[in-house]
Design a protein that fits this description.
heterodimer, A: alpha+beta, Ubiquitin-like (UB roll), 7 domains, elongated, B: alpha+beta, Folate-binding fold, four-stranded antiparallel beta sheet, two-stranded antiparallel sheet
Chain lengths: ~1000, ~90
């Protein structure tokens, strides 16, 4: 036993014991513990294996920068990999497992890598796995992938819920340590809406680990006094367990709140994590400072910890990190830890001070070695001694823990996330936050102010400045007095000389000093290159401990200032955020809502098999008893429409009501064909171009009165066309008197098509729908039997005698039911998207399979539709340019297989007979293909160079993907009823 | 890119409510204008570092097209104007 729970002290509840598991072993902790402090109390020093060499690793820190103590918490789908034990709040029943080891933490086969380490130098992967290229996919990558990564991501569905919330405040204070608490109090008293966020489950920051007295109270009690006042202020919101991870434009901050990460069984009514976007008029960064590790030989052995962490475990958690602790320091902090340990009765083996002389006072009787250096550590799974060198003399000193202190790095991540670079301070030997303007101020230790009294004062002072800046009046405030402080200043020590073992810089990724030296020698000395070459700072901790040391080492190796090396780029997120939290509620039907047509229930009753079409679910076919494949159902539906009558849901087409004195003029400019003189009561097929002359969308537009038009768009572009029209009306022609709105969801629309369609429609509506009274392209408001008002359009996508009947959405199902009922005697059937597609293909009608953005009206055979008379319309000018009118453009044609049993597939290319497949020989491509039950063989629509001149010619349909070559005859694209007799019957 | 856009009709709203079309400084030429003018209008866009006028639509709000004048480097938004107002001004 070395690490153990002290008999008294700490902010833990000794009456509330909690059992938890680590690697299957049951252990006991206290309420108020982190997993790390509980593990230490159980003398579990070894908690993980490093990434590359699988070296045994122990707890190093007591906070979010922890590189080693990463565990998987939870079971099954609730497993959270790579969770830092140092911030994980202990709860009864917590189940943690170590990572990156096999078969066990103590006996890890991967540790063989450690013996191979001379061959696993920086850039190893780049150098070794270069060749042979074929080995990458089959050999190298699987091996690397198996070895890579620490925790394993869970493949099961995440059962937790998450949510996203906006918050607004005058002042966001990031960090509830001494600086942040004082700032929040000052601002709160002045009446500002304050949000105080802290990543810890217990606010207070360093005050929770301090032994000094403030205003005559122990530091934790002082923190509690401040918090009590803040809780009493209605304008102050305290958010514990909340990490502010990012600073974005307009002073918007991203934060994640761990609402239920600390409970064994989350309540379903609450999210497990909550993603906050905080809009702050001002923000104050009071994130404190992170202690810098010392880089010395064997510094990664379990038991080597940050000095401040040793203090925190003793003071806050009542845990001794060892029975005999050696301290290696370059500044006052090591002496503070010595004082803390002495106060708890823990033996101090030695203090090694890298400085020749310093005023710091060690506890009475403590051995202090000045100008000393630790060159190696002893022990296997935990440290048992250190090798100390001073002036050429070497000594081995027994100890069971090492507290190291290399000075302090202000936590300035947020301030550097929007592009401003950290600034080197030679006085403080630290990088400080750049001046980033009014929105974000930095205070306390985050600003390089290390004395506690100065931090309290700076927090209050910076808050007072913000109060004045925002026009509030400050309330007078008496600063608290601090007694018993130790000066934490330090002298930079990037590398402890004389290392006899690997001196690690990045513990998690196993980057040691020599790797950085190699990077420099091989030309990767730029800090960003060195990072990637050595992987320093690329682990899950993102270099919180290692980044600045790497900069210092690269500077020292070149004899330049750290200012000239700089830091790597700071980017969100400060600590990892679960994808679940980022997704929030946007998953499943909330990410892709189910959009149902008003005829959805009707279709379901009639046996529809649905298909996703954007967010819509559209009937693909209506399977009947005995039909085993979609083709059987589709063929039956097609033939029934051609012979009798069918009914199809077309409600998903975009529908736009257009009103106004200039509505006709607006449409005339929007479409390439003429709309100005469209008579009332008539529908017209319209083609919309893009400004570059290519077809954008098509549909029918009907004139219901002189100033009221009704437009339909394709289903896919309903939103796009609406937006395009808004652009045209608002930006291009703001003076046209036109208004429009979408009515896609307001109308249920059904196509009733087939030779017997008129019988069905006439049975439904009062108005006369005979060919004489209601000819092709008629479009009118009608009254249904029983008085319901609807709209009827004589338009046809199938090429049959067809009507489209629109009724208010709410009545859609009843009207469709009635149509089925009235149609039964005429053999009506419901038909789906598949049959619709075959019917239009047989008729040579186009869809977006043809209008793919590269097709002009003339390519598709609509050349004569494009108005030459109109002075202007969208796409007019560029549709006349040479490339769009060239004679060898690909034109739409039909294809029939020469051998009737051969098939086509869309996407196949066209070649001249005997030509080799090549880009040069490419003659065109198939845009749509399918089996025509009417003709009894496959047909296709295709685009072929000068296609309209080549009817009767044979081409090869080359389908590389399907591995087929089919000889086809080029023909007119209308396969059924080219004379439109059916349409006009 | 800004996190918040102040729509002249709806107030300050998150950028996710908007969609961006692009350069708002190009004006649709007269139908009789030269090939070069039309080619420039349809195909050629500057990619400036600094001030930029863009068309944004408040798709999840008032659905108005807006001219957002912003800085592509600092992401500062200088002004947000209704597209029709801006178009009338440009036509003057």
């Amino acid at each position: 036993m070395t690490a153990y729970r002290l008999s008294a002290g700490g902010l833990v509840d000794r009456t509330n014991r909690m059992d938890f598991k680590f690697d299957g072993r049951t252990m006991s902790g206290l309420s108020g513990d982190t997993l790390a402090s509980a593990l230490l109390a159980n003398d579990q020093l070894l908690v993980g294996r490093s990434f590359k060499y699988h070296r045994p690793r122990g707890i190093v820190t007591a906070g979010p920068s922890e590189p080693n103590a990463l565990v998987t918490i939870g079971q099954g789908s609730r497993s959270d990999p790579n969770t830092k034990a140092t911030v994980a709040e202990l709860y009864a029943g917590l189940d943690a497992r170590s990572q990156n080891r096999w078969p066990s933490l103590k006996h890890d086969v991967g540790a063989l890598n450690n013996l191979l380490s001379p061959f696993l130098s920086a850039g190893f992967y780049y150098k070794t796995f270069m060749w042979p290229a074929a080995f990458w996919e089959k050999v190298y990558e699987p091996i690397i992938r198996r070895a890579a990564g620490l925790g394993r991501a869970v493949l099961e569905r995440d059962p937790e819920t998450y949510e996203k919330v906006w918050a607004h405040c005058d002042l966001l204070v990031v960090g509830a340590g001494p600086t942040g608490l004082m700032a929040a109090r000052t601002a709160g008293r002045a009446g500002l809406r304050v949000i105080l966020a802290d990543e810890d489950f217990r606010p207070g920051g360093s005050l929770l680990s301090e032994t000094v007295e403030i205003d005559g109270m122990p530091a934790p009690a002082f923190a509690e006094t401040l918090l009590a006042e803040l809780r009493s202020l209605p304008n102050v919101t305290i958010m514990p367990r909340t990490t502010v991870f990012g600073w974005y434009d307009d002073n918007v901050f991203g934060a994640v709140e761990r609402v239920q990460k600390h409970v064994a069984q989350p309540q379903a009514k609450l999210p497990v994590e909550r993603l906050w976007r905080i809009v702050a008029k001002r923000a104050l960064l009071a994130t404190g400072a992170e202690e810098r590790p010392l880089v010395f030989g064997g510094n990664d052995r379990p038991g080597v910890m940050m000095a401040s962490a040793v203090s925190t475990y003793a003071n806050r958690f009542g845990v001794a990190s060892g029975k005999s602790v050696a301290i290696f320091t370059n500044g006052g902090t090591g002496y503070r830890t010595a004082a803390d340990l002495a106060a708890q009765g823990i033996e101090i083996a030695v203090i090694i001070d890298s400085r020749a002389d310093a005023d710091d006072v060690a506890p009475t009787g403590t051995r202090v070695i000045r100008s000393g250096s630790v060159t190696d550590t002893k022990g296997k799974h935990r440290v048992s001694g250190i090798v100390v060198e001073r002036s050429g003399f070497e000594d081995t000193i027994a100890c069971d823990a090492v507290a190291m202190s290399g000075g302090w790095n202000p936590v300035i991540h947020l301030a550097c996330q929007r592009g401003a670079k950290a600034v080197w301070s030679p006085e403080l030997n630290s990088f400080l936050a750049p001046d980033v303007g009014n929105g974000l101020a930095v205070a306390g230790a985050a600003a390089g102010i290390y004395s506690l009294a100065a931090c309290l004062s700076d927090g209050a002072g910076k808050a007072a400045a913000i109060i004045a800046d925002l026009g509030f009046s400050a309330v007078s405030d008496v600063l608290p007095s601090v007694s018993g402080e130790i000066d934490p200043s330090f002298t930079a020590l990037w590398y402890a000389p004389g290392a006899k073992a690997k001196a690690f810089v990045d513990f998690q990724n196993d980057v040691h000093v020599k790797d950085l030296g190699l990077a420099l020698r091989e030309g990767f000395g730029h800090v960003e290159h060195a990072k990637r070459y050595t992987t320093n700072g690329m682990a899950t901790d993102q270099g919180k401990l290692s980044g600045i040391n790497a900069t210092g080492l690269l500077a020292a190796m070149q004899g330049i200032s750290p200012a000239d090396v700089g830091t790597t780029t700071f980017r969100p997120f400060y600590t990892p955020v679960a994808f679940g939290a980022l997704a929030g509620t946007s998953r499943d039907e909330h990410a892709a809502p189910v959009r149902k047509s008003p005829l959805y229930n009707w279709a379901q009753k009639n046996g529809a098999v649905f298909v996703d079409s954007g967010l819509w679910y559209r009937p693909a076919w209506f399977a009947r008893d005995g039909e085993r494949t979609w083709r059987q159902s589709t063929d039956r539906e097609v033939l029934n429409v051609r012979q009798n009558v069918g009914i199809c849901d077309v409600s998903t087409l975009g529908k736009i009501e257009i009103f106004g004195r200039d509505a006709a003029e607006f449409l005339n400019r929007l479409y390439c064909n003429a709309f100005l003189k469209l008579p009332v009561g008539k529908a017209r097929y319209g083609l919309m171009l893009r400004e570059d002359g290519m077809v954008y969308d098509d549909g029918t537009t009907s004139r219901l009165s002189s100033e009221h038009f009704f437009m339909t768009t394709t289903t896919a572009l309903a939103g796009g066309v609406m937006s395009h029209m808004e652009y045209c009306a608002q930006v291009l022609w703001p003076d046209l008197k036109v208004r429009f709105c979408s009515s896609t969801d307001q109308w249920a629309q059904m196509a009733i098509a087939g030779p017997k369609a008129r019988h069905v429609v006439q049975a439904l509506v009062e108005d006369d729908v005979s060919d004489a009274a209601f000819p092709f392209l008629a479009a009118q408001a009608v009254t249904l039997k029983g008085g319901l008002k609807g709209r009827l359009f004589r338009i046809s996508f199938s090429g049959e005698l067809a009507y489209e009947l629109a009724v208010p959405a709410w009545f859609g199902e009843a009207v469709a039911d009635a149509a089925m009922e009235e149609g039964r005697a005429h053999g009506i059937c419901a038909y789906g998207l598949e049959a619709l597609n075959v019917l239009r293909l047989e008729k040579g009608h186009v869809t977006h399979a043809e209008f793919d953005g590269r097709v002009t009206p003339d390519d598709a055979g609509f050349g004569r539709m494009v108005s030459a008379q109109k002075s202007d319309f969208i796409g007019k000018r560029l549709s006349t340019r040479y490339g769009l009118t060239a004679a060898d453009r690909m034109q739409m044609v039909g294809l029939k297989p020469v051998e009737a049993d051969k098939t086509f597939r869309a996407g196949a290319h066209l070649l001249r007979e005997g030509a080799k497949p090549s880009t040069l020989n490419d003659q065109g491509y198939v845009s749509s293909a399918g089996f025509s039950p009417t003709l009894g063989h496959d047909i296709a629509l295709a685009f072929l160079k000068s296609g309209r001149e080549r009817y009767g010619e044979r081409v090869v349909v080359w389908d590389k993907l399907g591995g087929t070559e089919t000889v086809a005859e080029v023909c007119h694209p209308v396969f059924v009823d080219p004379g439109n007799a059916k349409l006009n019957s | 890119m800004a996190s918040l856009i102040s729509c002249p009709h709806c107030g300050t709203r998150p950028k996710e409510e908007f969609s961006i079309r692009g350069d708002a400084s190009v004006l649709r030429p007269d139908p009789e204008a030269s090939d070069e003018a039309w080619n420039d209008y349809v195909h050629i866009r500057a990619n400036p570092r600094g001030r930029y006028r863009e068309h944004w639509q408040h798709v999840a709000g008032c659905r108005r097209w807006l001219v957002v004048e912003r800085d592509t480097m600092t992401h500062e938004v200088y002004s947000v104007t209704d597209g029709a107002v801006a178009a009338r001004e440009a036509a003057r």
